[in-house]
Amino acid sequence: MTTAGTTLVIGATGTTGSRTAAQLTAAGHRVKAASRKATAVAGAEPVPFDWYDPATHTAALDGVDRVSLIPPLGEADPAAVMLPFLRQARSMGVHRAVLLSSSAIPRGGPAVGEVHQALPELFEQWAVLRPSWFMQNFTGTHAHAVSIRAEGTIWTATESGRVGFVDAEDIAAVAVRALTDEQAPDTDLVITGPEALGYDDIARIVTEVTGRTVVHRRLSYEQMRDRLAARLPVEFAAILAGMDRAIAEGAEDRVTDTVQRLTGRPAHTFRAVLARETRRDG
After folding, report:
1. CB within 8 Å of 164: residues ≥ 6 apart
2. How many CA atoms lie within 13 A of 148 on its CB side?
3. Three-state SS for 100?
4. In the prediction, which pLDDT does 2 show?
5. 100-128: average pLDDT
């Protein structure tokens, strides 16, 4: 059973936000689709929203009783930006909030981990989605997808470490249940795909599905950091290379049943998602 209401989807044109908005409207739920340019989203009411422009917040929250939250991109201290908005949301009648975080960031951890910690104190109904790395990193505009297309190569410092890569469609499906089920999860949910794969496995599957030879080149932490620093700030490059090192040490080698448990169907495999995304792009 689901409850009626209006959901504000922040980042409604992004990788997960667009899918969350689409699945909500397809199920008959009322959606306000928030983005900087109030971009039209099928079946939803587009509204302008900018984390850094409080003037956009009141109108976006008007008539809303639940909100799907995506932190401001690249913000080192999202709590400072998000918490004033969340307090306003509560004062305007929002009673459920679902936050997109990451499997790599625990409650009370850095960045969005602080928002995670504050959420249960702000809202009577809540959930924090902590997905693993996206399968769409290999099909969209992510650096891995770009290097696959340009060089037939995936560059990482993950060694033989494995990741429970997850489909963005599955993340959205969990978000929809967390937003609309009669009882909110009131917890954090680590979301993975059905199998943990190393980047050697990813390269092999991309080769098999697309017919183009793709290889995984293993770099040291320092080599990966320097490669990333050619196009990113050094500090951010070090953080990203450090995430690869954590994968090499086994930090993401896990599989959860969150998708099956909340949606009633199995999580999509990487092979199936790659085939789907390749057909869509073709």
Report:
1. 103, 132, 192, 193, 195, 196, 197, 252, 253, 254, 255, 256
2. 26
3. strand
4. 47
5. 94
